[in-house]
Specification:
Layout: E1 3-10, H1 18-37, E2 42-49, H2 55-67, E3 72-75, H3 79-92, E4 95-98, E5 111-113, H4 122-131, E6 136-142, H5 145-160, E7 164-171, H6 179-188, E8 192-196, H7 199-215, H8 220-223, E9 226-228, H9 233-239, E10 248-251, H10 260-272, H11 281-300, H12 305-312, E11 316-319, E12 322-326, E13 333-334, E14 338-342, E15 348-353, E16 381-382
Parallel strand pairs: 1-2, 1-3, 3-4, 4-5, 6-7, 6-8, 8-9, 9-10
Antiparallel strand pairs: 10-14, 11-12, 12-13, 14-15, 15-16
Helix pairs in contact: 1-11, 2-3, 4-5, 6-7, 7-9, 11-12
């Protein structure tokens, strides 16, 4: 007999990063339906709250869910929203299942992290860029902790390898005016641009930067590629055909990942959500979060946060990207880093990947030296 549990889904499907919020909600709902269709275990009843990208609404939504008796919430895309609500989960003893890549340097007994930590996205990307001859970066990012911390990690890693960050520029989430910073980039002519913009800001920057380069006769993807740790398939579609190809992204999941498990996932997703958006790493992280939560609830036999937290570290999941489990010390997931190059078909060609899941290192205490010197073989293998 199944035990029924209420869970919260705190995801923004309106606002400046609505596109990714919709893919995350879709991934979570698909997992809920799969859990409920299984013959045994638990049944999940989701309560959906849409903060519409507003920080204050995240806090109000989180408190409303927890006060209603829900103890487990899958939610948040940005680090600013996550940090806003962690104190609420710690005070009210709930468990936030955070399904997005992030900048690291955080742990909480009230958060399970199913997205990539910095040693699973920014460090593999830096190593790849260095191996390709990238020494000088120009950083363009959103003005909050995601960009600040990733740029700091990039700056330190490049310095260790004899490179440098030429400049950093930050913009409010939702900003779409980039002419001035593009002029500055074209004056510096860096080896690559490191992008930590999100949502509509990122899409406009990609379009404007490509247009400005074309006007000057510059082959932007070859001369000044844009590298990201968050660029995903639905965002390529949002950028549009004039500027979607040739961008580098490091992620633990692309929809082009091979294998029967991912084929089954993408087919099920397409059947359930024929209008999209295309699944992304954040879709998969939400899907993973719900499946791990269901397994932990079944193993714990209750919704008690301490019991579910222990149980979550004793279960695993055959995810679309490959096997996933949690590290019991940090409550972060072991994930498989990959490097992709965007194509004209709004997908990523995977050019390198780790041979196996990589243990999380959110504080980068086990990742020293933080970069592989350029005369050593990179940790990722080339994909034929």
């Amino acid at each position: 007999m199944k035990r029924h549990h209420r869970i919260g889904l705190l995801l923004s499907t309106a606002g400046p990063y609505a596109l990714l919020g919709r893919t995350m909600l879709n991934g979570a709902l698909l997992a809920v339906e799969e859990v409920n269709a299984a013959a045994a275990g638990v049944a999940l009843g989701p309560t959906i709250v849409d903060p519409e990208g507003e920080i204050a609404a995240y806090a109000a939504g989180a408190e409303r869910l927890l006060r209603s008796g829900i103890r487990h919430v899958v939610g948040c895309y940005t680090s600013s929203s996550r940090k806003e609500i962690i104190p609420i989960f710690e005070k009210m003893d709930g468990l936030l299942w955070y399904p997005s890549h992030y900048e690291g340097f955080e742990t909480s007994g009230n958060v399970v992290y199913t997205g990539a930590s910095p040693n699973q996205h920014i460090l593999p990307l830096v190593k790849h860029l260095l191996a390709q001859g990238g020494r000088t970066a120009f950083c363009v990012g959103a003005n909050y902790i995601w960009a600040w911390e990733n740029n700091r990690i990039l700056r330190e890693a490049l310095a260790l390898a004899g490179g440098r960050v030429a400049a950093e520029r930050y913009f409010a989430v939702g900003e779409t005016e980039f002419d001035q910073v593009i002029d500055a980039i074209l004056e510096v002519r860096p080896d690559f641009v490191f992008n930590t913009l999100i949502g509509v800001s990122a899409y406009q920057f990609f379009r404007d930067f490509r247009r400005a380069c074309l006007a000057r006769g510059i082959d932007q993807p070859k001369t000044m590629p844009v590298a990201s740790c968050s660029l995903a398939e639905p965002e390529l579609e949002a950028i549009g055909p004039e500027a979607l190809d040739g961008h580098l992204s490091c992620s633990v999941y692309f929809s082009s990942v091979g294998g029967e498990r991912n084929q089954a996932f993408t087919a099920a997703y397409a059947a359930r959500f024929p209008d999209g958006p295309t699944p992304s790493a954040d879709t998969e992280a939400s899907y993973i979060a719900v499946h791990l939560l269901a397994r932990a609830l079944a193993r714990a036999g209750s919704e008690d946060v301490a019991a579910v937290r222990r149980a979550a570290c004793e279960v695993s999941f055959a995810a679309p990207q490959g096997p996933v489990r949690l590290d019991e010390t940090t409550l972060h997931a072991c994930l498989t880093p990959r490097i992709g190059v965007s194509t004209a078909q709004a997908r990523f060609a995977i050019v390198a990947q780790a041979a196996e899941p990589v243990a999380p290192d959110p504080y980068l205490v086990r990742s020293a030296p933080r970069v592989v010197p350029v005369d050593r073989r990179p940790a990722l293998r080339v994909v034929p």
